[in-house]
Specification:
Shape: flat
Strand order of the largest sheet: 1-2
Number of helices: 4
Order of helices and strands: HHEEHH
Largest sheet: 2 strands, antiparallel
Mean pLDDT: 94
Amino acid sequence: MKLAEALQERADLNRAIEALSVRLRNNALVQDGSSTPEDPNALLTALDASIARLESLMTRINRTNSETMVDGCSLTALIAQKDALTLQIRVYRELISEASQSVRRMSRSEILIKSAVNVRDLQSKCDTLSKKLREVDNKLQATNWVTELL
């Protein structure tokens, strides 16, 4: 199994576990003398099996990510770099959005509000970071489709 396939299966398992959780809550109580639409014990069995499979898959994915090297970096390090770039870009975009707001004055006596940062420079830096993020993400995606899951 390729790493990318394992990542897809992990996402599917997470969605299935969430759905089972909802179904369990929906079948947790029943009026005396009635029965639940679904058997909670069967749902619990399915939940336990899904969580066990997820645990096994996550262990193998984490091992593969830590042992697979790309350009001298582990996949784990590339993932951390991607997460850090994503966070940095989000904060920069929020700052650019705030600093770009124009405030109109009705009269000369009103307070003038100006940007405290250079929006053009920030946008340029944000564009550079976005390009780097795309490159890191592309490297991760390409590696995921050629790497065997350990």
